[in-house]
């Protein structure tokens, strides 16, 4: 007697829950031939490969745009949303302010603190991120607990993981120098976007950086008086491989000042992978799929798919 299980036609997609950078999906369709061969009294079915399909997915983060601003010594600093930002873009902001540990910074609604670095009570820099909503526009205003010179930039990116955008971050305050150094961070996901922010207790233009090709955003406080100016610069570069980024620097010509350098690694987005049904697949064919991912990933299969086994290997 021969038993046969009818396989319903599944939907051809897989949903991934958690961080994932690369996925390789192979689907193989087999058909069981109707002819039966009798050998030693045992019925055997001949299995043949009908067709296969594959899909390779890698998400790429792209720089969208930036904006910047500075105040003349006040309890607020407002920065307009970068032009061209659309829903689900991730914006990252840096606010550089005088007063360091003596100043509390309150972000606008929807902005989440990434990290903050201070150089005693001289200078501080706080980093934030926000997910852009549909139809969002306007100016974002940060509030300081004391009236101080402040400046900032916002840099926007597409293709970022919207549920958990930050892979890793790090920063440090530096002694007076014309070179601003951000310490190395070690990424845990491939194809991170490394975003650097450089703050100075001066109003000197940024002239060069070792992160990417140039400083793409810079903002400076304005005015005169007892308080000196502040400056904030931003740069970025894609880091394809998992691992240490190395230190990154920005220079401000010949003017030395107390400064702060910070790095944020953004994770690429995408939580699903779609695969076309192999050509020629017919009713009662058996479909076998293999999925390969990087990192620790929980995989949820579509309805109708039964797990066979899972194997893991250390990096």
Outline of this structure?
With 315 residues, the protein is an all-beta fold. The chain has no helices and 22 strands. Helix content is 0%, strand content 54%.
Detail the topology: elements first, then pairings.
Layout: E1 13-17, E2 22-39, E3 42-58, E4 62-70, E5 74-80, E6 90-98, E7 105-106, E8 112-119, E9 123-131, E10 139-148, E11 150-158, E12 166-177, E13 179-182, E14 192-200, E15 208-209, E16 217-220, E17 231-239, E18 248-251, E19 257-266, E20 272-274, E21 286-293, E22 298-300
Antiparallel strand pairs: 1-20, 1-22, 2-3, 2-21, 4-11, 5-10, 6-9, 6-11, 7-10, 8-9, 12-19, 13-18, 14-17, 14-19, 15-18, 16-17
Please give a handful of descriptors for the protein shown:
22 strands, five-stranded antiparallel beta sheet, 315 residues
What does this structure look like?
This protein is mainly β and 315 residues long. It folds into two domains: 13-58 and 270-300, no CATH class; 62-266, no CATH class. 0% of the residues lie in helices and 54% in strands. It has strands at 13-17, 22-39, 42-58, 62-70, 74-80, 90-98, 105-106, 112-119, 123-131, 139-148, 150-158, 166-177, 179-182, 192-200, 208-209, 217-220, 231-239, 248-251, 257-266, 272-274, 286-293, 298-300. The strands form six sheets. The protein has a five-stranded antiparallel beta sheet with strand order 4-11-6-9-8, with no helix packed on it. It has a five-stranded antiparallel beta sheet with strand order 12-19-14-17-16, with no helix packed on it. The two termini are 47 Å apart. Mean pLDDT is 82; it is low at 1-44.
């Amino acid at each position: 007697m021969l038993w046969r299980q009818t396989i319903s036609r599944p939907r051809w997609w897989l949903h991934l829950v958690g961080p994932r950078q690369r996925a390789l999906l192979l689907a193989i369709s087999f058909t069981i031939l109707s002819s039966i061969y009798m050998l030693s009294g045992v019925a055997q079915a001949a299995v043949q490969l009908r067709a296969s399909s594959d899909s390779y997915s890698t998400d790429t983060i792209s720089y969208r745009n930036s904006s910047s601003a500075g105040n003349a010594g006040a309890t607020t600093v407002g920065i307009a949303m970068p032009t061209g930002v659309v829903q689900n873009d991730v914006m990252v902001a840096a606010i550089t302010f005088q007063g360091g540990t003596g100043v509390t910074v309150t972000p606008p609604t929807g902005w989440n603190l990434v990290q903050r670095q201070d150089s005693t009570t001289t200078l501080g820099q706080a980093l934030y991120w926000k997910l852009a909503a549909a139809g969002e526009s306007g100016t974002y205003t940060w509030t300081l607990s004391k009236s101080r010179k402040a400046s900032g930039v916002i840099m926007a990116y597409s293709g970022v993981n919207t549920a958990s955008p930050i892979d890793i971050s790090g920063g440090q305050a530096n002694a007076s120098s014309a070179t601003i150094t951000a310490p190395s961070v070690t990424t845990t996901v491939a194809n991170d976007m490394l975003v650097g922010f450089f703050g100075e207790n001066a109003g000197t233009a940024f002239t060069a950086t070792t992160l990417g090709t140039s400083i793409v955003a810079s903002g400076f406080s304005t005015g005169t008086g007892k308080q000196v100016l502040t400056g904030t610069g931003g740069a970025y570069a894609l880091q394809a491989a998992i691992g240490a980024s190395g230190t990154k620097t920005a220079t401000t010509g010949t003017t030395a000042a107390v400064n702060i350098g910070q790095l944020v690694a953004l994770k690429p987005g995408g939580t699903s992978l779609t695969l076309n049904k192999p050509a020629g697949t017919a009713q009662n064919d058996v479909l076998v799929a293999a999925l390969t991912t990087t990192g620790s990933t929980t995989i949820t299969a579509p309805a109708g798919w039964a797990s066979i086994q899972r194997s893991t290997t250390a990096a």
